[in-house]
Each structure stands twice: as structure tokens, then as C-alpha cells.
Design goal:
With 204 residues, the protein is mainly alpha-helical. Helix content is 50%, strand content 8%. Helix 3 (71-99) runs parallel beside helix 4. 34% of the residues are buried. Bound molecules: NADP nicotinamide-adenine-dinucleotide phosphate.
Amino acid sequence: TGSSRGIGKNIASKFKALGANVTNLNSSMYDLTVEEEILKLCKYLSKLRKIDILINNAGINFSEINKKINLEKYNKLMNINLKAVFLITSTVSKIMQKNKFGRIVNISSIASHRVREGRTVYSASKFGLEGFTKTLSLELAKYNILVNSIAPGFINTEMTRTMLTKNEIKKLSYQVPLKRLGKTEDITNATIFLCSNLNQFING
Ligand code: NAP
């Protein structure tokens, strides 16, 4: 999901280059902030006979102090960052179970480990995603399905460029031992590894 820009675009293009048959999804096809649209996507996916790999990557973020957040904003973010992952994964893992093979990677965030002001809903969604990932990994291991998450730090994408000022990005880069933001390829490489034959044991 979310393969039109940023991390997801890079993952999709590298998987394609490696010979994978990739289904690209973006907001113009299914708006994952809307429950009915998530269910429509699940209906489409449930008709496919074989899905080997699922990358749950689409996500949104906003910065707002908690007392100012309304239910509409909360629902939108939770729908795409967590509910969509729950519903899509539930649908796709049924197909994987039949085929006795699957690799699922959820793109989480540093916000599932470290918190900052203005990110209550985003952090709640990513902490939830980690809990979902770990629990599901226990349930699906017996079907040869490995479920993992990757929690990127600050990656140079549109999301980062709209959430942070140039000055904040400069300061954050300086805090990183390598003195730079992550590149989308850094996340792609880890995703490829987790889905490749090189990974037979890392789960949850
Ligand atoms: P991005 O550049 O903003 O791209 C977001 C992707 O999600 C796009 O393909 C977008 O499709 C899709 N998307 C957005 N709203 C959607 C909607 N309503 N329905 C369906 N798809 C939608 O974001 P990114 O930085 O690559 O982030 C990707 C993932 O990494 C997210 O889960 C994010 O939380 C996580 N992450 C990012 C960073 C970072 O530093 N960038 C750090 C930690 C975690 P459209 O083009 O159609 O909008």
C-alpha cells in the first residue's frame, strides 16, 4: 500500500526490478482513511488466488496538541495507519494460509518507540501496529508466514518534508550518528531482506 510516493514507491520499484509481480495501491484507487474503501479493497484482494508478500506501508501523520484533536482527524489517521492494516492483513493472510507461505512487513515508525509532543494519535497508531505485528506473528508462524515490522527513523520523504521545517530537519540530521536522514532505499533494503529466502527465522 502507498506505493505512489516515498518509501512505498521505492519498495515497489525495487521488488519489481527483482521480478516480483507488484500490485501498486494509492489513495486515488482506495482511500484508506475511509472504512468503506478499505472494505472494497479487501473484497478485491480476497478474489486473488496467490499473494506471497504484503507490505503495509501507507500512512499519514499530523502534528497537533492532544486537546485540539477532533474525532474526524483521529478516525482518518487510525483508519489508514491501523484499521486498514488489520483488515487488509486479515484478508491477505487467509490466502497465504491456504498456500502455506507468506511474508508480511508493516512499516511502523520510530514513533512506536520514542514519543514527542503533538503526536498522540500517530504514536498510538504505531504502538498499536507493533502490538498487532507481534501478536499476529505468533498466530501465523505455523503456516510458514513471517510477520515483521520496520520502524524507520527520519526518512527523506514528502511526509518528513511537510511535518518538519528545514531547520528541524537539519537539527535532526545532526542527532543521527551518520549525520543524515535515512533514504527510502535504506528501508527498502531491510524490507527485501525480510521477504527474501535469506530470512527464514526473523518473526515478530
Ligand atoms: P509519503 O511520502 O507521505 O507517502 C505516503 C504514501 O501513502 C503515498 O503513496 C500515498 O498515496 C499513500 N497514502 C496517503 N494517504 C492515503 C490514503 N488516504 N489512502 C491510500 N493511500 C494513501 O509517506 P512516507 O514517508 O513514504 O511514509 C510511508 C510509511 O512510512 C508511513 O506508514 C509512515 O508512517 C512511515 N514512516 C515514515 C517515516 C519518514 O520519516 N518518512 C518515518 C517513520 C515511519 P497518494 O500519493 O495517493 O497520497
